[in-house]
Structure to design on (721 residues):
């Protein structure tokens, strides 16, 4: 439907938005906020149209939601872009983009790197549990990335206030209280999303007769991330107070580091994908069969 | 229109003298009453604040306007001050300088603290007092209404009012607001009952703070202050307990030694879950040991830190001054042009009325004579049109010159010449 919209369209918009956000270091520029908002909205629209095309076009061969890592990453980037757009509309002077856009770009970059990777297991993609599993892990990832951006913002703002640098900098960041509430939201939402993801994974495996190896590196690290997110959210919720300090920021950053490890391991494992060994064995078997027929 | 201003301000007059020259509201009404009794065609507004006493006067012609010397003497003598003692400090302005000064004052560009917001309401109050006593009429209405508009333009189009310059306001608007989204649910602790701390607390309460605790060495004083501010009071012995439970601490005791040491504060914090706290130490000497800021999640700001922000903001306001001054100049020109147009409008109207009257008299006289000889209606119309054309052609050159010189300094002279040559009287 929107096959003319490519990754380059929104990638370029986000790069321009990032450049405009970076220009905040050089002081005030008239009309910057309006231009930035327009460019962000244009990028987000292109991003949305691209995803609609991905999920509806039969040409792509993937009519299922989240058929491969590429779609998964681009959708995660879309979620972050949506959050960024909402925050910018609420507070056009806040430099959210400096922290969120690099993560959006990184997720799109990850998707492009994985564009030709093996799609997720076709037998499970039709399962509702598989959709819940995929979407909840996707939401968890989005919240972890979101939290990382706000965790870094908190630490920078905290450092600036501690060293009385705030008034001298042209960069405007939200209040510590707002940043902490975002960190807290990220920690709690991540824990919920990963819990749903983990439980749906268990049900998915059970519904398929336990085909998935529980001790594969992908599952083990995802499980560790799940347990850690529960611990982190419990620590956060246990400590009350309007300003809990830098603890929340460190927790969300630890979440992000964990996520990077998990993504690294999962992407290089066959978790969720058709068995990679089949890629090598099937042509060999076909060749042998052809030789047998010939002889 | 003739304008003049006589007065004393913080620029040339020390506070001791300004205090002696200051007028109360009642005295303003009384003084203006006396002045306008002597000069019935005078419009006058008297502005009296802690930084200035200024009398603005307007009259249709120079002879209706008192001399600056008279006005200065009138003001000083009314307040019982020997004029010879303050004569050297008086500021006397006339013509467009008066309007420029009024706009500059209203826009807070002449204030001791550049950009302070209070002066505009004081200017408005002075104008209203003059209106109530019927001492201000058309000219003053226009001048003061325009002054208010200029002040609003300066406020909207420059950043001269945007940055705070007093320590309590900077503490709340620029420092505490970087920490908290709102003050409503925050625990705020005021240590000591110093003036600066109390003022800061008032700002916080204005911004929604409602969980305030006052700790003072004298519990009685703490209770008295807490009653005034709608807060709670606590004994001095409970200082550390409140300290570790607060989100924001404002400290202004008169202690000669720090009342909170790093060791004690660390020990008190260790007993509670870690939380961030903003401390505004406004006392001199300081109430908190500087090393307290080494603690994680403790943000300590002293008077010097806040003063630094104030100084930067004052400089930022000064940087906006040329832009604001341009607005004042622009509006002053516009006001004077409009004023000149209004002045010439009345004269032109008078001139036309006079010409019309003469024309009608002459025409009627002629028609009366011609009617006896059997004048036709068509001829009567022709005559009337001819007289109209004659009047218009005669008046066209002087009125054209007046219009062409509307924005020049010649305008007032031309207008005066026109009035004299055609013997126009009010």
């Amino acid at each position: 439907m929107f096959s003319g919209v490519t990754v380059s369209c929104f990638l370029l918009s986000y790069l321009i938005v990032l450049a405009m956000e970076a220009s905040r270091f050089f002081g005030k520029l008239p009309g910057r906020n309006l231009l930035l908002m327009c460019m962000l909205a244009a990028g987000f629209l292109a991003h949305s149209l691209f995803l609609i095309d991905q999920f509806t076009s039969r040409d792509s061969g993937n009519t299922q939601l989240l058929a491969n890592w590429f779609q998964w990453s681009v959708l995660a980037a879309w979620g972050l872009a949506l959050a960024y757009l909402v925050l910018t509309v609420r507070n056009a002077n806040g430099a959210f983009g400096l922290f969120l856009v690099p993560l959006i770009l990184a997720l799109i970059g990850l998707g492009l790197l994985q564009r030709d990777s093996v799609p997720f297991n076709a037998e499970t993609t039709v399962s509702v549990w598989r959709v819940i599993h995929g979407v909840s892990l996707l939401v968890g990832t989005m919240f972890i990335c979101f939290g990382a951006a706000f965790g870094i913002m908190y630490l920078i703002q905290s450092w600036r206030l501690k060293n009385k640098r705030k008034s001298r900098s042209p960069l405007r960041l939200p209040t510590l209280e707002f940043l902490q509430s975002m960190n807290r939201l990220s920690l709690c939402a991540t824990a919920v999303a990963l819990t749903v993801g983990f439980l749906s994974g268990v049900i998915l495996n059970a519904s398929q007769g336990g085909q998935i190896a529980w001790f594969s590196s992908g599952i083990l690290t995802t499980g560790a991330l799940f347990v850690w997110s529960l611990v982190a959210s419990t620590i956060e919720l246990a400590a009350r107070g309007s300003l809990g300090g830098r603890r929340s920021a460190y927790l969300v950053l630890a979440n992000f580091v964990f996520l990077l490890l998990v993504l690294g391991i999962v992407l290089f494992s066959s978790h969720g994908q058709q068995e990679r060994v089949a890629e090598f064995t099937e042509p060999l078997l076909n060749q042998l069969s052809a030789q047998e027929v010939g002889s | 229109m003739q304008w003049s201003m006589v007065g004393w301000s913080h620029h040339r007059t020390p506070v001791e003298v300004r205090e002696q020259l200051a007028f109360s509201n009642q005295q303003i009404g009384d003084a203006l009453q006396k002045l306008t009794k002597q000069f019935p065609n005078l419009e006058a507004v008297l502005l009296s604040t802690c930084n200035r006493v200024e009398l603005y006067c307007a009259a249709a012609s120079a002879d209706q306007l008192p001399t600056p010397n008279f006005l200065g003497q009138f003001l000083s003598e009314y307040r019982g001050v020997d004029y010879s003692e303050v004569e050297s400090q008086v500021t006397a302005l006339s013509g467009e300088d008066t309007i420029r000064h009024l706009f500059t004052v209203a826009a807070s560009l002449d204030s001791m603290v550049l950009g302070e917001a209070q002066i505009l309401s004081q200017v408005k109050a002075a104008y209203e007092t003059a209106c109530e006593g019927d001492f201000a009429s058309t000219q003053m209405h226009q001048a003061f209404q325009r002054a208010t508009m200029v002040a609003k333009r300066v406020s909207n189009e420059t950043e001269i009012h945007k940055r705070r310059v007093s320590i309590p306001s900077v503490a709340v608007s620029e420092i505490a607001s970087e920490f908290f989204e709102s003050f409503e649910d925050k625990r705020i602790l005021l240590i000591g009952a110093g003036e600066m701390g109390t003022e800061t607390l008032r700002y916080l309460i204005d911004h929604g703070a409602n969980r305030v605790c006052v700790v003072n060495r004298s519990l009685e004083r703490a209770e008295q202050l807490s009653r005034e501010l709608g807060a709670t009071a606590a004994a001095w012995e409970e200082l550390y307990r409140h300290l570790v439970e607060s989100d924001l601490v404002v400290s202004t005791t008169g202690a000669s030694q720090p009342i909170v040491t790093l060791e004690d504060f660390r020990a008190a914090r260790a007993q509670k879950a870690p939380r961030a706290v903003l401390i505004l130490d406004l006392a001199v000497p300081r109430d908190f040991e500087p090393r307290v800021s080494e603690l994680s999640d403790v943000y300590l700001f002293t008077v010097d830190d806040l003063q630094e922000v104030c100084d930067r903001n004052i400089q930022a306001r000064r940087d906006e001054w040329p832009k604001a001054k341009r607005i004042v100049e622009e509006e002053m020109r516009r006001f004077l042009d409009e004023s000149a147009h209004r002045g010439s409008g009345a004269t032109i109207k008078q001139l036309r009325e006079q010409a019309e009257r003469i024309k009608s008299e002459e025409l009627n006289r002629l028609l009366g004579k011609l009617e006896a000889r059997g004048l036709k209606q068509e001829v009567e119309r022709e005559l009337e049109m001819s007289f109209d054309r004659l009047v218009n052609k005669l008046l066209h050159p002087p009125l054209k010159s007046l219009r062409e010189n509307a924005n020049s300094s010649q305008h007032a002279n031309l207008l005066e010449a026109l009035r004299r040559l055609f013997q126009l009287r009010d």
